[in-house]
Design goal:
By secondary structure, the protein is an alpha+beta fold. It folds into two domains: 140 residues, no CATH class; 124 residues, 2-Layer Sandwich (Mago nashi protein). It is built from five helices and 16 strands. The strands form three sheets. An eight-stranded mixed sheet has the order 13-15-14-9-10-11-12-16, with no helix packed on it. A four-stranded antiparallel sheet has the order 1-2-3-4, with no helix packed on it. It has a four-stranded antiparallel sheet with strand order 5-6-7-8, with helices on one face. A hairpin with an 8-residue loop joins strand 9 and strand 10. Helix 4 packs antiparallel against helix 5. It starts with a helix and ends with a strand.
Length: 300
């Protein structure tokens, strides 16, 4: 009995050792203060394509300051392994000339990848980010439309599909029959497209004023893997329960129109003025737009 117990203890310690050995210490692990973070950002060797002033406290307007105080933010940066590759990543809120800005920096092993997390003052009055485990608790005061209506939101966001997205712990599995997508263009951006994807993988692209394609209708065939990727993302963003309409706080924004036929011929329609409805929708639009460069198209 003692031998069995000893063997179990040994196996447990061995598994603990190997799980810990997956953790690789990096430059970000050594950052312990706002000054350290600022020096890390300013170091040209790290090739961070953002410049922020990192301080212990940021001056917000009165309303946003009350929210910041209620969240008891101790510092404006945090560390976690957001993309689960064994390397510590960094979340930073700092100041630029336009106001506070939040970015994240991923350690990809041979380089750092940095992206914007906050949406900017056209879309948010202010935002606050807290690191919890390998997730981000994102608080924002969202500008709902051009009439100045606002709403306070709290979202748990996780790194998935190459960016941060609203967390869905229990995605449903819908049978996607057809996807129709259209971009209306705007006064400043004349680019217009219409796309239709059928469950057998057939895809039609109608292009107008597009720098990539000549104006016309094009056809391609999606692989099973690519169609599965599209469907899995749709299900993850819980398209069925998204709002029917989204707006931004300025005029002359391009509108995205998304129509999804699914299950027993149910239909979900979304009109997204500005294309900023949710993080998940933005990633989905990018996935569809990328199809023009990664598929074999034939002009009809």
């Amino acid at each position: 009995m003692k031998k069995i117990f000893s063997s179990l203890i040994f196996c447990f310690c061995l598994s603990l050792f190997y799980s810990q050995s997956k953790k690789i210490y990096n430059k970000i692990d050594s950052l312990n203060s706002a000054k350290d973070v600022q020096e890390f950002l300013n170091n040209d060797k790290n090739k961070i394509n953002y410049y922020l002033d990192v301080e212990d406290k940021i001056d917000y307007d009165r309303y946003c300051a009350l929210i910041a105080d209620s969240l008891k933010l101790k510092q404006n940066w945090g560390k976690a392994d957001f993309d689960n590759n064994g390397l510590t990543d960094l979340l930073i809120t700092g100041k630029i000339s336009e106001g506070p800005k939040t970015i994240y920096i991923l350690d990809k092993g041979d380089h750092f990848e940095s992206k914007n997390l906050s949406k900017g003052q056209l879309y948010e009055q202010c935002s606050f980010s807290l690191v919890k485990d390998n997730k981000i608790e994102y608080h924002s005061v969202k500008i709902l439309n051009r009439y100045g209506f606002i709403r306070r939101l709290t979202e748990n966001i996780v790194y998935k599909s190459g960016d941060f997205i609203e967390e869905n712990t229990k995605p449903k599995r819908h049978n996607i029959l057809e996807i129709q997508f259209e971009n209306s263009g705007s006064h400043w951006n004349k680019f217009v497209l219409k796309m239709e994807i059928i469950s057998n993988g057939d895809i039609i692209w109608v292009s107008k004023d597009d720098d990539f394609f000549q104006t016309g209708t094009y056809q391609a065939k999606l692989s099973q893997a690519k169609f599965k990727e599209i469907v899995e993302l749709l299900n993850y963003i819980d398209f069925e329960n998204l709002q029917d309409e989204y707006e931004v706080g300025y005029s002359d924004a391009p509108s995205m129109y998304l129509t999804i036929t699914y299950d027993n011929l149910k239909i979900k329609k979304i009109r997204d003025s500005g294309g900023m409805g949710t993080r998940g929708l933005r990633i989905f639009y990018d996935l569809l737009n990328d199809l023009k460069g990664n598929q074999q198209w034939t002009k009809l």
